[in-house]
Sequence to fold (290 residues):
Amino acid sequence: MSHLGIFVDRKTLSNSEQLNALIHCRDVAEEMGHDAHFLFPVDIHKIPKMDALFIRARTDPMNVTYVAARMASLHSIPVIDDPEAIQICGDKINMYSHLKKKHVSIPETVFLSRHDLSVERVSQLFDTLGTPLIIKEPSTSFSLRVEKVSDIAGFFRVARRFIKMSDWIVVQQYIESKYDWRVGVLGGELLYACKYTIPSVTFKIQASVNGHIVYCGVESVPADAVPPHVIQLGLDAADAIGTGLYGVDIKNNNGDAYVIEVNDNPSLESGEDTHYPNVYQKIVSHLLSN
Fold:
């Protein structure tokens, strides 16, 4: 009997959808004949006793999930997601650099250092990338510190705020769309696909509007109803990062598809798996067959 560690924290369990998904994951593992153990940060010393580790808390190179992933890796324990992918996806410049190196389609993207912030340079970016522009702080997640700007003054207001957190910012061409595709990939194969419908009051899948958080709508979509080039782009983007579990966000505009984001260890609690009932079986098998 194998032992699967499911690494969680209090924030993970505070959301009823996430809690139900975790319980479902545990039940699936036990139905497959494995022992499943929920591990909190205080239980990190138990990781070497596990046969595999599934991280279900927010991954970030600067928090305990990275320590958990690194500990599993050092003990040759299969882990989702691995520390290398956490480092890549936790830094937008690192992530986009990997995608560019593999010639994966992304919006026109420029990395701008604090020393490049000049009216002349910003004016040039509007001329070459168009209006509006998207500015991202490299360590952003859940659409935080991602802003759309339409003029030089707005650009500097956002850039000066972000540059306090990082020596660099990411500037991208704006790709308009009413929804994003999310392509889930595990071990280089399609795991699930869904549409994230963008709320009309924002351009992001999650945003604070008038003091309230608004979320995108999630619709699971059968693989045969997803444009084949979107699925292939998702597979290519995941391959540029590693062999773990990834959620690739893609915009498909007038037939041209662009990777907006690669999320290591993506969410699975909002109905993404509706048309893919074996998602957790595949994850557990992937972890415990290595």
Observations:
- The domain at 109-173 is CATH 3.30.1490.20 (Dna Ligase; domain 1).
- The chain has a mean pLDDT of 91.
